[in-house]
Amino acid sequence: MPGPNSRSSGRGNLSQQVRSSVPRHLGVIVDGNRRWARENGRAMEEGYKRGSEKLSEVLGWCEAVGIEIITLWVLSVANLEGRSAKELRAASEVIEKSALALAAEDHWRVNVIGAMELLPEDLANTLKRVERSTSENPGMLVNFAVAYGGRREILDAIRLLLRETDAKPSDLAEKLTEEDFSKYLYTAGIPDPDLILRTSGEQRLSGFMPWQSVHAEAYFCDAHWPALTRGDFEQALNAYATRVRTFGT
Hints:
With 249 residues, the chain is α/β, with parallel strands linked by helices. The chain has a single domain, classed as Undecaprenyl pyrophosphate synthetase (3-Layer(aba) Sandwich). It has 10 helices and 6 strands. The protein has a 6-stranded parallel sheet, sandwiched between helices. Helix 3 runs parallel beside helix 5 and helix 5 runs parallel beside helix 6. The N terminus is likely disordered.
């Protein structure tokens, strides 16, 4: 996990064009820890451990090129419902250790997004402590998407909106704007992602930030998360730099 040598001032082989068009907010669908373990004859726990170590590298790469915000989807609501108890224990332990290591780095700001009430109490409490202890740090904003699901986020936003407003539903239907609704999402106040990177070859977003990603560019990398290289990362930035963003117009 992040340590004194995790940050780098270098920008690799990025061209000037790429350096001038780096995404402000990068979303990452962290995928392939288990497949990496299977393909390399390793235990599942080793796959999660290697994935945690890769996180340190990627955060360093992001900061080196000037990315301001990164959102890492590390555990989905579907994972909580479909994985074995053994796998969830292994994943939870890695997430907890990763969050604590980020706090110990005392540099990045950690923000947890997701349905925290679905997590084991100890893990949820640890993540909340990390949020509080890093809230004033000056570095990059690191969003941990844990127990996250896009449909769940939208439903939670609707529930929160209804709880916090005195307006009748009929009045809300007439007056509610996109800007108003965005204030109730997990990412309230955070700019939408410009680029979403998914590892492990899957070419879908799987419900990652469905509201926020409407104008985001997407890049799908074949490498499993633990095997992601600096070259893979730079290829994603190169692809982003060549795209003409129309924002739906």
